[in-house]
Amino acid sequence: RKEVEQDPGPFNVPEGATVAFNCTYSNSASQSFFWYRQDCRKEPKLLMSVYSSGNEDGRFTAQLNRASQYISLLIRDSKLSDSATYLCVVTRAGNNRKLIWGLGTSLAVNP
Amino acid sequence: GAGVSQSPSNKVTEKGKDVELRCDPISGHTALYWYRQSLGQGLEFLIYFQGNSAPDKSGLPSDRFSAERTGGSVSTLTIQRTQQEDSAVYLCASSSRQTVETQYFGPGTRLLVL
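Output (structure tokens, whole complex):
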């Protein structure tokens, strides 16, 4: 079993739709959680951190459920420019704090 | 300000040749990572440097792969006796000591082994 798992999709949604992605992690000692975004043939870029209490950044909402070991990303009012692959990232406990990357969920927002 | 830079941006080589890929991290960033990404695949961790600590080499796929980081700044990833399955985009990222998890990526080197 992979340490971080995501549904690869693709998710095809119309503009204006609300879409949600989940990501599960297997290591209960994982400390920090992030969503990165990767556009086609581009490098990944940090989208947002995920805090225990949940956090929102404009149309994007991230939540963490430690008991069930998953994080989620909700995108409201989808735009064409949201089309990308969304990568779930988890850090391991300990001083190394190496990031563990999911394989990503592909989103296509259609006109 | 300057971001992470990588060179070359593209590299075509013949099977069996050695290649060197270079990464210039953001100035002051103590952590440096190498990943590779094959077409349509996720990020594969290769190696991680953090300050003066011994690097985490656990992701290197074979002994043909090696990396060094001189003076805590520039890093070079070397692939010896390249194979066709080494063809991928090699991405470098750096982060600061305070926010290790926020990684800034370079544009990558696209390696094609013929």
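The first strand of chain B starts at residue 5 and ends at 7.
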